[in-house]
Amino acid sequence: MDYIPVLILMLVGLVVGGAVLLLTSLLGPKLPNRKKNQPFECGVPPIGDARHRFSVRFYLVAILFLLFDVEAVFFFPWAVVYKKYLSINAFILVEMAFFVAILLLGYFYVVRKGALEWE
């Protein structure tokens, strides 16, 4: 019963999004030409095939960035709770120290394995 407003909002969002997509496809201009159908790559004319292999290091660095970036998101709620609940500050501080220690362990492991070296 408490989630009915959320479901209504989701339904309204889906209906509005679908209506906008439908109307733009029906009413939008359709003037295809050869230049519009070419792939666009940052303003530079494409050269060669787009299906060349990338080094695994690109993906590894991206995954590591996401991992440590998402972990850093947890610091904001911790700071809010830490200031709000002064009675359990020691417990919260110890838990965050444990969290940071695990993060540092993971970081040192990644550095030791050489995942961040570009050779």
CATH architectural grouping: Up-down Bundle
- Write down the Rg: 25 Å
**Coarse structural class:** mainly alpha
End-to-end Cα distance, whole Å, is 58 Å
Level of helix content? 55-70%
Count the DSSP helices.
4
Task: Give the ordered list of helices and strands.
Answer: HHHH
Shape verdict: flat
What count of domains describes the coordinates? 1
Oligomer: single chain
Mean pLDDT: 83
Low-confidence stretches: none
User: Biggest sheet, open or closed, and with what strands and sense?
Assistant: none
Number of DSSP strand runs: 0
- Strand portion: under 5%
CATH C-level name: Mainly Alpha
CATH topology: Methane Monooxygenase Hydroxylase, Chain G, domain 1
Describe the structure.
The structure is a single chain. The chain has 119 residues and is an all-alpha fold. The chain has one domain (4-113): Methane Monooxygenase Hydroxylase, Chain G, domain 1 (Up-down Bundle), CATH 1.20.58. 65% of the residues lie in helices and 0% in strands. Helix 3 packs antiparallel against helix 4 (89-113). The longest helix is centred in the C-terminal third of the chain and has 25 residues, at 89-113. The mean pLDDT is 83.
Salient structural properties:
119 residues, mainly alpha, Methane Monooxygenase Hydroxylase, Chain G, domain 1, 4 helices, 65% helix
